[in-house]
Amino acid sequence: MDIRGLLEQVKNNDIDIDIAMEKLKDLPYEDIGYANIDHHRQIRNGYPEVIYCEGKSDEHILGIIKKMSEKGSNILGTRCRKETYEKIKSLYPHCEYEDLSRILKIQNKPVENVGKGKIVVVTGGTSDIPVADEAYYTATFLGNDVERVYDVGVAGIHRLLNKMNIIRDARVLIVVAGMEGALPSVVGGLVDVPVIAVPTSVGYGANFNGLSALLTMLNSCASGISVVNIDNGFGAGYLAATINKLD
Q1: What DSSP state is assigned to residue 231?
Q2: Which of 28, 105, 131, 217 qualifies as a cystine partner to 197, CB 3.0-4.6 A?
């Protein structure tokens, strides 16, 4: 909800105080039994609440979307099933879905570009793209100019070096890698901006579903690197967007 706009309407006598109170009655959050929807999050954090769809029933997801849409919020859903999207699409025709990342988007109002620079998402391999795309679409949805540089891992380091003009143009970098997870350390040693490292569960047995990549990134000797959880593209995109809007 645009609280400032609502207050301006009251100030200018364009809306009755009782009507304004009715619009505000479900703030700061709305209890719908199975969820407490945080309608005030955008005021506090600058971004609306995001729906983590995995583990939720279709009915619960639709109920949350309905309440958020009533407040005019833009809606981002992560880890959304394709079947769930099809149900949502039948009720909200402007709903969009990204197959690889399983990102669901409903834009109820224009997205303001709040980023001060460019975010670049880099992957070690093609298998890392689903996680990288989750970061890409999250950061884009939150009002950022985002570019992708995919499949430039350390097994062929010349591929990375050929893209350094794009990488050095970033204000924030998200570097996604599985296997041994060495790519963020390499990138971190070549740039002077924050690097958000994302380990993925891509790899063979001793990769331990991403644990080896996570430990490599946590033990990086390159400075200026932060690390999010395994396969957490959303967390990386959100953090990058938060950094990119700082003055």
Answers
A1: T
A2: 217
The answer to whether residues 151 and 203 belong to one domain is: yes
Does residue 28 come out as left (phi exceeding 0), alpha (psi in the -120 to 50 range) or beta? alpha
Q: What is the pLDDT of residues 66-104, one digit of tens each?
A: 998 888 889 999 999 999 999 999 999 999 999 999 999
State the Rg of the chain over Cα: 20
In whole angstroms, what is the distance from residue 183 CA to residue 220 CA? 10
Instruction: Provide the whole-model pTM.
Output: 0.86
Which tens digits make up the pLDDT trace of 128-137?
999 999 999 9
- The total domain count for the chain is 2
Of the candidates 164, 168, 182, the one whose C-alpha atom is nearest the C-alpha of residue 219 is 182
Residue 75 and residue 162 in one domain: no
Greatest mean pLDDT among 14-18, 33-37, 159-163 = 159-163
C-alpha dihedral over 184, 186, 187, 189, to 10 degrees? Answer: 120
